[in-house]
Amino acid sequence: MAKQKTASRAAAKTAVKKKWAGHKASAKSSARKTVKSKARGLSAVKAKAAKEANKAVKSKARPKQRIAISHHREEDFKADGLRTYAQYRDLGISQASHGLAQAHVIRLIGPCNPAEVSKLHYHDVEFQMVYVLKGWVKTYMEGQGETLMKQGSAWTQPPRIKHLIMDYSDDVELLEVILPAEFKTVELSS
Fold first, then answer.
1. Which of 19, 25, 116, 122 has a Cα at 20 to 30 A from 128?
2. Rounded distance, CA 102 to CA 98, Å?
3. Cα(13)–Cα(3) distance, rounded to whole angstroms?
4. How many whole angstroms separate alpha carbon 128 and alpha carbon 177?
5. pTM reported for the whole predicted model
6. Contacts of 140 (CB under 8 A, 6+ apart)
7. CA distances in angstroms from 122 to 22, 98, 189, listed in the order given
8. Can you say how many angstroms the Cα of residue 40 is from the centroid of all Cα atoms in its chain?
9. Which stretches of the chain score pLDDT less than 70?
10. What is the 3-state secondary structure (H, E, C) of the chain?
11. What pLDDT does residue 107 have?
């Protein structure tokens, strides 16, 4: 009988170990399931939010852009832009992009008259980039100072940065890209 008690004690211990091991496993298992189900719930919420955001973007989406091709023609340079001392050749980007961007070639008319051109101003734009196609232009930009830009030079002007043209060569031509196409220019008193 003593052997039977010993055997049953050993069996009881094994049964208890199995019971607790099983209990821990089932506790872990249910905890994992809970976490997974919460994660699935969050994913569903995120997916729904993303779907709604996509709908909003699509409803506010711009019209489809078109191809714009522009070939150089002297008669396309017009004195109908922002500055009286410049001629502008519109490259058709504004119309093709439905106002998203504007691009034009600017030909500054020489000789430079600093009293007319050197006026501090800024443009209320999101992006502005200028590339010197030929000639040179000397600029001043707030925080940068004076810089001489020559053929092949390019620069960006952060939104609303104060700047001015100081001087330029008689043959200067610039390529300018601006976002958006329509923007406000603010002249500042010196």
1. 116
2. 10
3. 15
4. 6
5. 0.66
6. 120, 146, 147, 163, 164, 166
7. 73, 24, 12
8. 32
9. 1-47, 50, 53-60, 190
10. CHHHHHHHHHHHHHHHHHHHHHHHHHHHHHHHHHHHHHHHHHHHHHHHHHHHHHHHHHHHCCCCCCCCCCCCCHHHCECCCCCCCEEEEECCHHHHCCCCCEEEEEEECCCCCHHHHCCCEEEECCEEEEEEEECEEEEEECCCEEEEEECCCEEECCCCCCEEEEEECCCCEEEEEEECCCCEEEECCC
11. 96
Distance between CA atoms of residues 110 and 85, nearest Å: 8
Beta-bridged to residue 175, according to DSSP, are 105, 131
**CA–CA distance, 171 with 28 (Å, rounded to integer):** 79
Contacts of 25 (CB under 8 A, 6+ apart): none
- Where b means 16+ CB within 10 Å and e means fewer, 39-74 reads eeeeeeeeeeeeeeeeeeeeeeeeeeeeeeeeeeee
- pLDDT tens readout for residues 3-28: 555 556 666 566 555 555 555 444 44
Write down how long the chain is: 190
Amino acid at 34: T
Q: How far apart are CA 93 and CA 175, in angstroms?
A: 12
Residue pointed to by tokens 């091991």: 21
Q: For residues 130 and 174, is the Cβ–Cβ distance under 8 A?
A: yes
